[in-house]
Design a protein that fits this description.
The chain has 272 residues and is mainly beta. The chain has two domains: 121 residues, Beta Complex (Metal Binding Protein, Guanine Nucleotide Exchange Factor, Chain A); 126 residues, Domain of unknown function (DUF427) (Metal Binding Protein, Guanine Nucleotide Exchange Factor, Chain A, Beta Complex). The chain has two helices and 25 strands. Strands 1-2-5-6-10-9-8-7 form an eight-stranded antiparallel sheet, with no helix packed on it. Strands 4-3-11-12 form a four-stranded antiparallel sheet, with no helix packed on it. The longest helix has 5 residues. The protein is elongated. The termini are far apart.
């Protein structure tokens, strides 16, 4: 088992993996079966991947549920050569787990997260709080701050929101998001879509809307968290727009449209 250093710090392996021990109690489940129950998890960042994953000491993993992978992938994870299929109550999930070749990470097993890759474990918990998609990065901040700034949102020249009581959400590595009270948004110009998404820092965005007009903007460009995680409770019920594809004016100054990790998806056009 990897010992926790006195002062936790990110370390680098010769393969380019970054890793750091965590003091969080982490559990991973498939249905009603706990596959991972770890008080010594290790956060691992793979080269070129912006979010971390967890790896766990073998003794804190139900290895009896793992089988050598029948069809191991190539190039799926940095240097990984040994993959495992997960079998729970007869349900086979291929390549759900793997080991890293790095000597520093010897004895650890990493898992896929179903809601991120479509395979692996269904539910993950840090302490008693369920987390989604991927582990939270301890070097990333997400702050939701109520404000009195004047925020106006336009789509193709039409004002769709105007407020002086936004909540500004500052998330490391992403554009500032402006969450606006529902009553200050022209919902009559939008159509609810039924789309949902999950975020490890904010919870479940259970409401999405698309623009009803003729402007060439992507669908699901407005969203809301009806029941966000406690850390960002201030955005509860507010609506946010993708800055990347709408025009936002703050205190009279038109903001430049930012480029973010969402830009390729938002600007993609279906084939003719």
């Amino acid at each position: 088992m990897i010992e926790h250093p006195t002062a936790q710090s990110v370390r680098t392996t010769p393969e380019g993996l970054l890793w750091e021990p965590s003091d969080r109690w982490v559990r991973g489940r498939t249905g009603d079966v706990t596959v991972v129950d770890s008080r010594h998890p290790v956060l691992v960042w793979e080269p070129g991947v912006p979010v971390p994953l967890y790896a766990f000491p073998r003794e804190e993993v139900r290895e009896d549920l793992l089988r050598p992978a029948k069809n191991p992938p190539t190039g799926a994870h940095t240097g990984a050569e040994i993959f495992y299929d997960l079998v729970v109550h007869g349900d086979l999930r291929e390549n759900a787990a793997w080991t890293f070749p790095a000597a520093d990470l010897a004895g650890l097993i990493a898992f896929e997260w179903f809601r991120r890759t479509g395979r692996g474990l269904d539910h993950w918990y840090e302490e008693e709080e369920e987390i989604f998609v991927h582990p939270r990065d301890p070097h990333k901040r997400v702050d939701a701050l109520p404000s009195s700034r004047h925020v106006r949102v336009e789509i193709d020249g039409t004002v769709v929101a105007d407020t002086r009581r936004p909540v500004l959400l500052f998330e490391t590595g992403l554009p500032t998001r402006y969450y606006l009270p529902r009553e200050d948004v022209r919902l009559d110009l939008l159509t609810a879509t039924g789309h949902t998404s999950v975020c490890p820092y904010k919870g479940t965005a259970a409401e999405y809307w698309s623009w009803r007009g003729r402007a060439e903007v992507p669908p699901n460009l407005v969203w809301s968290y009806p029941d966000p995680l406690p850390a960002v409770a201030a955005i509860k019920g507010h609506l946010a727009f993708y800055n990347e594809v709408v025009d936002i004016t703050v205190d009279g100054a038109r903001l430049d449209r930012p480029t973010s990790v969402f830009t390729p998806h938002l600007t993609a056009r279906p084939p003719a």
